[in-house]
TrEMBL record:
Keyword entries, A-Z: FAD, Flavoprotein, Monooxygenase, Oxidoreductase
Protein name stated in the entry: FAD-dependent monooxygenase
GO molecular function: monooxygenase activity
Alphabetical list of InterPro entries matching this protein: FAD-bd, FAD/NAD-bd_sf, RIFMO-like
Pfam families registered for this protein in UniProt: FAD_binding_3, Rng_hyd_C
Residues in FAD-binding domain copies: 6-350
Domain of life: Bacteria
Necessary cofactors: FAD
């Protein structure tokens, strides 16, 4: 048996890789995150929506308030998407309550969503990961054996080194070396339509916008359809033009067309891309696991991609920690793919459905005509917007409502996220949960005693959370806040914990 240098090596230090490291550290497990980029770039902000569910998970790590404090757009700033003829043009309609940004104080969630550019998310997670992050290196290859994984690293200067890890998590994106190493492959398709992103600075533009604050401004101009939004409350903006190829595109003219005026524009970055609906045919080798874009890719509409990856990170992170800490067998790890791959498949389907109707499909030439022409077609366009885009902006059933029902480590009919509630102003039920398993509800019930005793026998950390106002109800809650068993589920409490940690019956 060869000695391992590190319990878990993580290939890729984007938000998913960093989140995996933070989750492992949350359970006291060391990791190494190998990332080629020395610093985080602002030139391609990519994800801009951190979902309510991701914010709940950041709250577990004590990072939710840090991220909100760093975000240039306070959650109270806006929760609206505005549909217009141009950023400075006529308003057609608007949709409120977008992306769970209106959930402050709601019993539905411990945290509302947050509009924040991905670079800030990465910076916060880098700080939390600390010395687990190794920059300037990349994973060049890896080889599994029965006792661990040998990983080949290469630096930007061409230096090489070999690291031995007990497990590897591949968070290395679309061109994943990890995915190739375990022989997994993407299944799915690519959208034919080209898209063109621009990050730009426009001094004074915000003062001219007649529509008030919004997280998205959708431009339904047939000559230049697309969308824009703010990256800060100064002069930094992003835009996406749909159906626009990179070749021959003048980004200044594109921005001005979306704005509807010849404003002063400084182009900071451009990013041509096409949407992909891809899912890895498997998520794991023996000791190697895929997460984030290495496992799945979906269109950005709805803001689900990076958030799905955060869910991956927490799921594989707590399970690896349980195995490495000795209170769960390695068989627990087989549940990772069974739980997370269906969530990614549902997310891809939802995002692809959102992509079916974008600004080009909603645009109507009459919107650009005289005031009477605009008013004639505006109601019909507004109705089409609400009918086709509501699910894109209101997707809490997917964000908060996905379950692991059917998982091999969840009792029948369970697997949902523990329903949230506030226990006192600012105190969430989730704040009472332990870092490992929690027993929540009526602790005077006979099942509670059985579970507490079994946890002691197995060495499973278990926090008891008594809810006197919930007589006769009891839930065994996993580290990721999902319910592994409840007192109304089939089967007895004696076997509930064994099942939840992957012990064969």
């Amino acid at each position: 048996m060869r000695q391992t240098d590190i319990p878990v090596l993580i290939s890729g230090g984007g938000p998913v890789g960093l989140a995996t490291a933070v989750e492992l550290a949350h359970h006291g497990v060391r990791s190494m995150v190998v990332e080629p980029r020395e610093s985080v770039s602002w030139l391609r902000p990519r994800a801009k929506t951190t979902s309510a569910r991701s914010m709940e998970l950041l709250r577990r790590w004590g990072l939710a308030e840090t991220l909100r404090a760093r975000s240039p757009l306070a959650v109270s700033w806006s929760d609206a998407a505005v549909f217009t003829t141009g950023l400075l043009g006529r308003e057609i309609t608007r949709i409120g309550g977008c992306f769970g940004l209106d959930l402050t104080g709601s019993d539905l969630a411990a945290e509302p969503g947050q509009q924040v550019p991905q670079p800030i998310v990465e910076e916060v997670l880098r700080e939390a990961a600390g010395d687990a992050l190794l920059t300037g290196w990349r994973v060049a290859g890896l080889r599994e054996d029965a006792d661990g994984v040998t990983v080949d690293l290469t630096s930007a200067a061409g230096d090489t080194r070999e690291v031995r890890a007990a497990y590897v998590v591949g968070c290395d994106g679309a061109r994943s070396v990890t995915r190739e190493a375990i022989g997994a492959r993407y299944e799915g398709r690519q959208d034919a339509r080209p898209n063109f992103n621009v990050v730009f600075r426009a001094p004074g533009l915000a003062d001219r916008v007649p529509h008030g604050p919004a997280v998205h401004y959708w431009v339904l101009n047939p000559a230049q359809p697309g969308m824009l939004g703010r990256l800060d409350l100064e002069d930094l903006w992003w835009c996406i033009a749909q159906g626009v190829p990179a070749a021959g595109t003048d980004p200044v003219r594109l921005v001005r067309n979306l704005v509807g005026a010849d404003v002063e524009v400084e182009i900071l970055a451009t990013d041509p891309w096409t949407a992909r609906m891809l899912l890895a045919d498997r998520y794991a080798g023996g000791r190697v696991f895929l997460a984030g874009d290495a496992a799945h890719q979906n269109p950005p509409y709805g803001g689900h991609g990076f958030n799905t990856g955060i869910g991956d990170a927490v799921n594989i992170g707590w399970k690896l920690a349980a195995v490495l800490s000795g209170w769960a067998p390695a068989s627990l790890l087989t549940s990772y793919e069974a739980e997370r791959r269906p969530v990614a498949a549902a997310t891809i389907e939802a995002a692809a459905a959102n992509m079916a109707t974008l600004a080009p499909e909603l645009a109507d030439p009459a919107l650009m005509g005289s005031e009477p022409e605009f008013e004639r077609v505006r109601p019909a366009v507004a109705e089409a917007v609400r009918r086709t885009k509501d699910s894109e902006f209101h997707s809490l059933d997917l964000v908060l409502g996905y379950t692991y029902d059917g998982s091999p480590v969840v009792a029948g009919g369970c697997g949902e996220r523990l329903p949230h509630r506030w226990l006192a102003p600012g105190e969430s039920l989730y704040d009472r949960l332990g870092p490992a398993f929690s027993l929540v509800g009526d602790l005077s019930s006979p099942e509670a005693k059985v579970l507490v005793e079994r946890a002691a026998e197995l060495g499973v950390p278990l926090r008891e959370v008594d809810l006197p106002d919930a007589p006769g109800t009891l839930a065994l809650v996993r580290p990721d806040q999902h319910v592994a068993w409840r007192s109304s589920a089939p089967g007895d409490a004696a076997h509930a914990l064994d099942l939840a940690v992957g012990r064969p019956s």
